[in-house]
């Protein structure tokens, strides 16, 4: 099963997301109620989220209080060290060099030339999402950049097949930071989760202690609202 799942995530396809949180147990309560997730605890500080018994995300305990409380998107690759070198050569940075994550795969943390952070995933026993594009699962990642033309060039060169190939069905786009956020906001990726109804989901976010950063707005890929959880991690709700 893992081998079959891995085959659908070509290089440059978003294949996983995780949240770095100060309190994983609080995260379980928030996201469990919001999205109907259940959880498997791994390695003490890592909880894998399941939707209908399929892996959809992870919550990870933040070990350094100086690190941001964030959702991170992972892009699939068959060779994380080689992709990390290409990213560096294209003007990006390697924040954390490729390292094995047990028997699950190989991971690295990198940035694009503007500093937007994303991760790489070279799958072994853990191929990535078992379910996506359904309510309560990953649906999209939007890069909010200062220079969208430069971003298109950088990611287009890295992930040509995933973005522009014959069978491309990309799960991420690029937009100016100022479209949604204050102009001083750093470039970043925003992880989107699918919901059946955005206003209802916003009510749930507020009830659970989160807040609304940007009320619903229309995009080329659906209706979106930007929110934070009760620990400050930002994400988006998307109804296609």
TrEMBL record:
Residues 13-123 form the VOC domain. Pfam families: Glyoxalase_6. PROSITE patterns: VOC (PS51819). Gene3D superfamilies: 2,3-Dihydroxybiphenyl 1,2-Dioxygenase, domain 1 (3.10.180.10). InterPro entries: Anthracycline_SecMetBiosynth (IPR052164), Glyas_Bleomycin-R_OHBP_Dase (IPR029068), Glyoxalase_6 (IPR041581), VOC_core (IPR037523). Keywords: Lyase. GO terms for molecular function: lyase activity. This is Enzyme related to lactoylglutathione lyase. It comes from Streptomyces collinus. The lineage of its organism: Bacteria, Bacillati, Actinomycetota, Actinomycetes, Kitasatosporales.
């Amino acid at each position: 099963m893992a081998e079959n799942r891995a085959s659908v995530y070509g290089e440059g396809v978003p294949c996983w997301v995780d949240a770095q949180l100060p309190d994983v147990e609080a995260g379980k309560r928030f996201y469990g109620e919001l999205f109907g997730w259940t959880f498997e605890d791994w390695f003490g500080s890592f909880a894998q989220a399941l939707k209908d018994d399929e892996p959809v995300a992870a919550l990870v305990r933040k070990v350094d209080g100086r690190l941001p409380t964030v959702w991170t998107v992972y892009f699939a690759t068959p060779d994380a060290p080689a992709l990390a070198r290409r990213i560096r050569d294209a003007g990006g940075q390697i924040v954390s060099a490729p390292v094995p994550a047990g028997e699950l795969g190989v991971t690295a943390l990198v940035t694009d030339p503007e500093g937007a952070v994303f991760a790489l995933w070279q799958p072994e026993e853990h191929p990535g999402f078992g379910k996506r594009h359904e309510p309560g699962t990953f649906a999209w990642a939007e890069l909010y950049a200062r220079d969208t033309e430069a971003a298109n060039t950088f990611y287009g060169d890295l992930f040509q097949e995933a973005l522009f190939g014959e069978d491309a069905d990309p799960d991420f786009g690029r937009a100016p930071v100022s479209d949604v956020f204050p102009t001083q906001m750093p470039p970043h990726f925003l992880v989107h989760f699918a919901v059946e109804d955005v206003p209802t989901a916003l009510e749930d976010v507020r009830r659970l202690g989160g807040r609304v950063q940007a009320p619903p707005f229309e995009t080329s890929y659906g209706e979106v609202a930007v929110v934070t959880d009760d620990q400050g991690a930002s994400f988006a709700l998307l109804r296609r």
